[in-house]
Write a structure and sequence with these properties.
By secondary structure, the chain is an alpha+beta fold. Helix content is 40%, strand content 18%. It has 14 helices and nine strands. Strands 8-7-9 form a three-stranded mixed beta sheet. The chain starts with 15 loop residues before the first strand and ends with a helix. Belongs to the Tdpoz family. Residues 158-226 form the BTB domain.
Amino acid sequence: MSTSTAGGGGKPSRSSSAIVADTASGYHILRIDGYSGTKGTPTGEFHKSLTFTIGGHSWFILYYPNGASGGDPLASEKVTTFQSHSSSGYAEFSKREDLEKSEHLKDDSFAVRCDIVIINNVYAKEIDEEAATPAFVSVSPSDLSAHFGDLLLTENGADVVFETGSQTFAAHRCVLAARSPVIKAELFGTMKESVTTGIVCIDDIEAQVFKALLYFIYTDSLPKAKKEEGEEEEDDVMSQHLLVAADKYNLERLKLICEDKLCKYIDVGTVATILALAEQHHCNGLKKACFDFLSSPTNLKAAVDTDSFKHLSRSCPAIMEDLIVMLENLVL
């Protein structure tokens, strides 16, 4: 490294750079349904996953139920540089007895996740002077949501009251209007004549659901789950009700949060109800999650025997058509 000194007593020059690794990453989950049926596969023979794309490259996973070759497995670590059309892996990945004793094998099914990171390029780039300047002042994170939460809690300056069931909730028209175009129309638009008394009656949303809705409007987050004495409301049921309310008031972020939470509650007993909800309220991500669950033959067989799924097939034939198309594409 070479240096030179400039004359004068001016401000010293500062600059900064960074070494950046340009990467692409992703993962693929291969689920083995009917594990016991694959145990008879001879050593050296495999079952192939569907081809998936990560970083512009095509990949697939080969599953050897009894190993790619004979012999005892050896623990090892290695880094491989891939060339086009090459493959790599472990001839003996895991002992069968270890898998069968583990919690990973459930209902004759297990899954393998393959994470891939592709390093496209490593290069140097300049960082702007402001970013390179040492920080002498520590700026605290925003507490705006906390202040608005306190405003809702204290009801200071509230100018509208919502009544649902036997409970009432005081709120601030301007805050609600800023967050929801639907509420804005009700309070200030063509529908405002219906709320001139300052009391808005909510007939289609339960009190606890509406309370959580207001909390989100003020803080952009959901209240921490806390069951009151005698309250039996489950988190998945609350998320379903809250999703419906979010759709009604056009709160898209809340709707997506509820979708994401409900994806974690999909099982044989709930998939039909959640799928119907996703279809009714145009939740594409949630619908895909249900279809992904039903793509397993084991899950599909168990789900179609439930009363809720039978009701869904009668009441929503369009969903059944979409499901059939999805299953046909899996076979192709």
